[in-house]
Model the fold of this input.
Amino acid sequence: QVQLVESGGGLVQPGGSLRLSCAASGGTLEYYAVGWFRQAPGKEREGVALISSSDDSTYYADSVKGRFTISRDKSKNTVYLRINNLKPEDRAVYYCAASMGELLDGNWRQYLMPSEYDYWGRGTQVTVSS
Done:
């Protein structure tokens, strides 16, 4: 069973950047589609960035496109989320999740839903404030 641990969150000023990490153990993360999700207080968990297992294709929610970058380091069994130009509305707990499903160009929006994922980390808090 894959265990996922997020790290890299913290308090950042508006306009700043962060790199979140999702480290896996108990399994090889490159065999899974991985998604980053976030959940702000009082809101539902939303998918923001995805990376496929087949060819590392990446996909982004419209709300974050251009500011978020998801990437994978197979040698470290880790997936990253780079967030640039942080805004107060980015404040949330960020989670990574792994799916045994096949993430493709034709179904990627489906993988923005938490229900598509089999394994979850516990999250890392991102706060944006001056």
Observations:
- The chain is about 0% helix and 45% strand.
- The two ends are 40 Å apart (CA to CA).
